[in-house]
Write a structure and sequence with these properties.
Layout lengths: L7 E4 L8 E8 L2 E10 L2 E6 L17 E3 L2 E3 L6 E3 L5 E3 L12 E4 L2 E4 L3 H6 L4
Antiparallel strand pairs: 1-10, 2-3, 3-4, 5-6, 6-7, 7-8, 9-10
Bound molecules: FE2/S2 (inorganic) cluster.
Length: 124
Amino acid sequence: MDSPAARPLCRLDDLVDGEATALDALLPDGEESLIVLRQGDAVRAWLNICPHAGRRLDWAPGKFLISRGTLVCAAHGASFRTDDGECVGGPCRGDRLRAVPLSVENGEVRLATEPAARLSGTAG
Ligand code: FES
């Protein structure tokens, strides 16, 4: 059986450059919604959980507002830099989204989680 890290989340071509979407992924602690942002050939991901009040950041399922290099939480307007996930405006300034490492190989986007870490329960 393939580990979750071995299965692609999507193809790079499925993602619109400069936009974010929501994808469900099986992480060591269970299934989570991810914010997946493509910037050229690079893809970043964070848990779709706002550090302010724990809400999802999308304003409609899988739809995120990106404005002037920040991702804006639909609940109360916290703004997170798209390069490092730090909140630079709004009610949780200074907090960060929790990054989820991804890899892109042969046009496929995958979780970069080590299967061994997943099995030992020490990931995170
Ligand atoms: S839950 Fe995101 S700003 Fe409040």
